[in-house]
Specification:
mainly alpha, about 130 residues, single chain
């Protein structure tokens, strides 16, 4: 194996760094959703803040998906980040709809699962790549 083929096999650094940054931001936004859910119960402005942060979370989820796609194309990296990022975005939208419909019995456990999924994706993204 020559040095040029070894370099070509690695994904572009900026795409991986972008994905790492967005994955951290996504988990922080998911944690902030939990905080605003508590504020929803204890303060009058909590509902508006929880709704606004839900919209921000959906946008961050979309950025997460775009960053995962960029790792693969044009970055040349693995596609294993795309599925979980898409799943987080879909379930975020489902949770938003359920929250708007006041279906708390499904909305709350889904929020907990979203946080767990976000942390699992963050661990996957931050893991060291396998050595050749």
């Amino acid at each position: 194996m020559t040095a040029s083929t070894a370099v070509a096999a690695r994904p572009a650094t900026w795409t991986i760094q972008t994905l790492k940054a967005v994955a951290v931001l996504h988990v922080v936004a998911l944690l902030f959703q939990a905080v605003t859910a508590g504020m929803l119960l204890s303060s009058p402005g909590g509902r508006a803040l929880h709704g606004a942060s839900a919209m921000a979370l959906a946008v961050i989820g979309l950025l997460h998906l775009v960053a995962a796609i960029l790792v693969r194309w044009p970055g040349g990296g693995p596609a294993r980040f795309i599925g979980p990022a898409a799943g987080l975005l879909v379930f975020t939208i489902v949770a938003m709809v359920l929250g708007i419909m006041h279906v708390k019995t499904v909305h709350l456990p889904l929020g907990v699962l979203l946080f767990g999924g976000g942390v699992a994706q963050l661990i996957r993204v931050m893991a060291r790549p396998e050595r050749a």
